[in-house]
Amino acid sequence: MKKKLLIIPSILFLSILLTFFYLLIIERDPSAIPSNLLDKNIPKFETESLLRKERFISSKEFGNEIILVNFFATWCLPCRDEHIYIKRFSNEKGIRVIGINYKDSSDNAVEWLKNLGNPYSDVPIDKNGRIAIDWGVYGIPETFIVNSKGIIKYRHVGAITKKIYKKINLLIKEIE
Amino acid sequence: MINKTFIIIISICLIQLFSDNSFTVEPEEVLKNQKQELRARNISKNIRCMICQNQSIDESSASLAKDLRILIRNKIKEGNSNEEIYKFLTDRYGDFILLKPPIKLSTLALWVLPFVFLLIGIFVVFWHNKKSKKF
Asked: For residues A115 and B104, what is the distance between their CA atoms, to the nearest angstrom?
């Protein structure tokens, strides 16, 4: 009887240990929060454009092709790190990228894009962060994949790394 | 001597624990209508700061927390109800933005399991007691 009693807790303990070990080795970010906008239409917005004279109207831009939406600012260091991958999306892969300039100085943003290269087809300005709130953004840089029907299919919080770059490319191929 | 210091430290800790004065609402954010301001404060206390994650936006000085505090106050001024404001926020950020998870089918385990475990615990204790009396 005593032996039996010892076996059950040890099995329990081992299974808990294995679960924790499994959670440790699989690739996941425990602090990542899933977007509530997945599989939903993009939030509509209208704002000034950094590069063009005419206003940016979301309903005119989305809904024809797959588009990456990237929230960025010149004051955000990880944005500078991921810039090389954003450029690769538009230059090498021919994917349209819209960069939403978040709470930034427009002069700085123009200068920044001049120096680092501009991968964005258009840059709508989010001066007070209100557009970002509608997109459920909480820490820039954030990147969304929007499909050709204007529906959000994926959100990444944080800078795009080599791994994420590959993942997004795979996802875009799947969505196509 | 040590005792005195100890008592002082403990009382400071207790005062901190029971005082509800930690908020970061900036003077220009405060609404003139006191009733509306109280409503805004109460909502803010239930809304998670998405950046700091374990603070409410009422306590956080993160810029997104400030934006949301102002947004909530604007919504109150526009005449939105509390439910409408909570819905606006959860539509965008999900249930995670609420510091208390709502009771839903998907969160039922979260709310019920502690009581289930408590019952199992009570059962085990009684079972053991009964057995040890026999010997």
From this structure: 51
Calculate mean pLDDT across residues A133-151.
94
**Dihedral through CA A72, CA A75, CA A79, CA A80, nearest 10?**
130
CA distance B92 to chain A (A): 5
Contact A63, A96 (CB under 8 A): no
How many Cβ atoms are within 10 Å of A41's Cβ, its own excluded? 13
**B75 three-class SS:** helix
Residue in chain A closest to B71 (alpha carbons) equals: A130
Angle between helices B82-93 and B63-77 (to 10 degrees): 140
**pLDDT, position B1:** 62
Contact at CB, A129 and B67, closer than 8 angstroms = yes
pLDDT, position A44: 94
DSSP A151: B
- Report chain B's C-alpha Rg in angstroms: 22
